[in-house]
Automatic annotation (TrEMBL):
One of its GO terms (cellular component) is membrane. It holds the Pfam family ZT_dimer. The chain crosses the membrane at residues 7-28, 34-55, 75-100, 106-128, 161-180. This is Cation transporter. One of its GO terms (molecular function) is monoatomic cation transmembrane transporter activity. Its main location: membrane. Residues 9-192 form the Cation efflux protein transmembrane domain. InterPro entries: Cation_efflux_CTD (IPR027470), Cation_efflux_CTD_sf (IPR036837), Cation_efflux_TM (IPR058533), Cation_efflux_TMD_sf (IPR027469), CDF_Transporter (IPR050291). Keywords: Membrane, Transmembrane, Transmembrane helix, Transport. It is found in: Membrane.
Length: 273
């Protein structure tokens, strides 16, 4: 936990550094593509802070109001990400609309600062992917940041040396890509909360039951958070089996499933017919 906390802190610092260079490039260099890059960088830094907050709450132990723990509270991270980037996209659209058909000047300082800002984001992505879980949503938008930086360096340079229109078209393209990623992430969050059963988990669960010589009558599994699953299983045991024997078998199965599949199950016993 302490290790992950330190990694999140490092990611925040790296995101802030990358965003700072882009903001400077936007204001000093006058590039609209760098402006888009800068605003999404600000949203990016705010996202990791919010995500870290929800992550801390999600790992708290069960209490009187949350009998199964706080795992799903971590969804506040990707939901906040969608909100922040949607707001950012709206601000960008308004700004680009205000300069539509208006000539402006782009300086080579804009792509220079964007190039410097690219370095910390690459490191931040690697760390976010290493942490995994909910940080993957952050990594996705940080990858957008890297793509934006590379594109921005190219179009801002062309905007400074050839025509500002290239810079403006680049800004429009980056904005469009941002909204495409928003739609993709929305679908993923929707899938995340829709209690989709993992076919692999169900298959492996049946294999564990088979080891004990038991065939499930019914299996219901749902993803709670990340790679944590919960569910219930109905099995049939011989009518002449004692309660103690049945308890021992069921207890062993539940422990195996938890240890091997990170899945918490409750087993309901029916007598064999």
């Amino acid at each position: 936990m302490l290790k992950i906390t330190k990694m999140f802190l490092i990611i925040v610092i790296l995101s802030f550094m990358g965003g700072l260079f882009k903001v400077l490039g936007s204001f000093i260099g006058g590039s609209k593509s760098v402006f888009v890059d800068a605003l999404t960088s600000i949203a990016n830094t705010l996202t990791i802070i919010v995500m870290y907050r929800f992550f801390n709450i999600s790992v708290e132990p069960p209490d009187e109001d949350h009998h199964y723990g706080h795992h799903r509270i971590e969804l506040g991270g990707p939901i906040s990400t969608l909100m922040l980037y949607s707001f950012t996209g709206g601000v960008i659209i308004v700004d680009l609309y205000n300069v539509f058909n208006k000539q402006y000047t782009v300086s080579l300082l804009a792509p220079m600062f964007a190039s410097i800002g690219l370095i910390p984001y690459g490191i931040a992505i690697a760390l976010a992917k290493y942490i995994g879980g909910i940080a993957i949503y952050y990594a996705r938008f940080t990858i957008v940041e890297v793509i934006e930086s590379i594109t921005t360096i190219a179009v801002a340079s062309a905007g400074a040396m050839i025509s500002y229109l290239i810079d403006f078209i680049g800004a429009l393209a980056l904005t469009g890509y941002l909204f495409i990623e928003l739609v993709k992430s929305f679908k993923e969050v929707l899938d995340y909360i829709s209690d989709v059963a993992s076919k692999e988990i169900v298959r492996d669960l049946k294999s564990i039951l088979k080891i004990y010589g038991i065939v499930a009558e019914r299996i219901r599994i749902r993803r709670v958070s990340g790679n944590l699953y919960q569910g219930d299983v109905v099995v049939r045991l011989p009518q002449d089996m004692s309660v103690a024997e049945a308890h021992q078998i069921i207890d062993s199965i539940e422990k195996d499933v938890k240890n091997k599949l990170n899945t918490e199950i409750v087993i309901h016993i029916e007598p064999e017919q």
